[in-house]
Amino acid sequence: MLPFHPFANLFPLIEGSAFDELAADVAERGLREPVVLLDGQILDGRNRYRASRAAGLINSEDSVDPADARHFVRFIPAVDGDPLGYVISKNMHRRQLTDDQRRMIAARLVTMSKGRPDANTANGGISRQQAAEQLSADEAGVERARTVINRAVPEIVAAVDDRKMSVRAAAEIATLPVPEQKAVLARIAAHGETAQAFRAVIKDLRDEKTAEKKARRAGREADLAVKQRALPDRRYGVIYADPEWPFEPYSRETGMDRAPDNHYPTSSVNDIVLRPVGNIAAKDSVIFLWATAAGVKAALRVMEHWGFTYKTHFIWLKDRTGTGYWNRNKHELLLVGTRGDIPAPAMGEQWPSVIEAPVGAHSAKPEIFAELIEAYYPNLPKIELNARRARPGWDVWGLEAPEAAA
């Protein structure tokens, strides 16, 4: 057969019943669009060429037979323009490509631009972003497709090209060592190698992977707890803090009845910063620090001075609306910061970032947030600063703190 140009090979061939229909159409109606050649290779029309050979319309093999010349035209870059752009335009308008097919084509285009698999290309180099734009694909998907092409065994790549496996699933498998990839293929073969079999095995693999991650995370948290409890000086892996933040009312004549100072003593931010919380925190630990929307800047300053790096936050959505300068406050923030190597919750075990709970006594925080912390870190030593009540297994500190619960 005539060789196919590398640019043409970016796009998958038509196979199966679709090809049989094309061959039957060519046999009945003839070849209505010529095959396009560049440097003796088929630049456009591989499927038409194959269908014409199957129908007995074209006999050309290693080179164009003079008798078949009418079915071929030559692509002249000086006249016809960029051959790559030509191929992409033809195929994008002619064919209904799936998202994953576009990702794989773009990935092959990037790979080709770096000299693989054929160094004899006119392509001077195309970035991932450029390839994604030309194929109307997302960059993240193109990068996953590159992982498949560069790291997956050929059978996995073929499964993606045959639309039996998604690029995302194939990229996950591609990160495994080759023997493990082949083991996955064996499991799929046992299910019949259908698209449904691929999906079923991939789901099982993800479930197994998730279970392994959860087990490893739980083991790390338990080991860390043992080490922290064995320290000669008490150190805590979890610090839950609700500082007595100051608040300046809009009017000291009319607003002091709602100020925190009217309900409990408050401290300046500088005084809170200087508390030696870092001295009771374990080397690997996490802090959950309450802050108001207006006081986020001060809370982040405190967190940093205590030795923690901000990671994320939860939102307490209240069941009633309060006061405020720019808006009427209906939420508070529970900032999360870490130091050292503390495990995050396992995938699938994370709580939602917004938690709705009723308002209780002034400044008291809903119990559900302590339950969240216990669910995340059941074994680590815990202390609550400015605690209102004792919690089993926790130490407490603060003006209103009760005796620690057994």
From TrEMBL:
GO MF term list: methyltransferase activity
Protein family (similarity comment): Belongs to the MT-A70-like family.
Top-rank taxon, per record: Bacteria
Sorted UniProt keywords: Methyltransferase, S-adenosyl-L-methionine, Transferase
Protein name: MT-A70 family methyltransferase
One GO-annotated biological process of the protein: methylation
InterPro entries on file: MT-A70-like, ParB/Sulfiredoxin_sf, SAM-dependent_MTases_sf
Classification via Pfam families: MT-A70 (PF05063)
Species in which this protein is naturally found: Kaistia nematophila
